Structure formats: structure tokens, C-alpha cells
């Protein structure tokens, strides 16, 4: 039976007594932890700060772009007003052109009617001449 007890002892691991680290080790570990935590938090805050700087730059660029677009819109509006004034100045001439065009169309119709009438008259004259 002693052989069995010896084999059981070999299979069982021995536990060491939990010892508290020395006071100097705890202090050093705390300093190391706080140092690493400070580095981590500094990195996080730096990243957040950089994000805000990026957003600020994007807002500035967007603001400048909107100012450019505003200037372009003002120029377009000014040019449109100028074009409308010029068109209004040309309107009487355009109206005259339309009236002349209508008169030319009426004159053309009258010329076609006169041509048709003269052809009929010529045909009658030739008919009478043959008799």
C-alpha cells in the first residue's frame, strides 16, 4: 500500500504558499501601470484632439467652398439680370421682326394667289387666241 501512496503523491502537484510581493515590487508595478495608463490616455486624447482638428479643417474648407459658391451664385444672378435687361431692350425689335415675318408670309400668299390667277388668265387668253 505504500507503493500506492507514493504514486498518489507523485500525481498530486504541490501548491506553494501564496506570498505577497514585496512592498517595493507593488510600488514599481503601480508606477508602471499608471505610466502605461497615462500613455494610453494621452494617445486617446491625442487621437480625439486630432479628430477635432480634422473636423475643424473640414469645416473651414467647407465654409470657404460655400463662400466661393455664394460668389458664383451672385455673379450668375447679376449676369442673369443683365441678360434680362438686354432681352427687354431687344423685345421691341423682336416684336417688329415678328410683324415683318407675318407681313412677308401674307405677301408670299398674295404672290402665290396672284401667280395662280395669272396662270388662269394666261390659260384663258391662250384659249381665246386659238379660236
UniProtKB/TrEMBL annotation:
GO cellular component terms, semicolon-separated: BLOC-1 complex; BORC complex; gamma-tubulin complex
Lineage top rank: taxon: Eukaryota
Name of this chain's protein: Biogenesis of lysosome-related organelles complex 1 subunit 2 isoform X3
PANTHER family noted in UniProt: BIOGENESIS OF LYSOSOME-RELATED ORGANELLES COMPLEX 1 SUBUNIT 2
InterPro entries: BLOC1_su2
GO terms, biological process: endosomal transport; lysosome localization
The species this protein was found in: Sapajus apella (Brown-capped capuchin)
Family: Belongs to the BLOC1S2 family.
GO molecular function annotations of the record: gamma-tubulin binding
Region feature (Disordered): 1-22
Composition bias, Acidic residues: 1-15
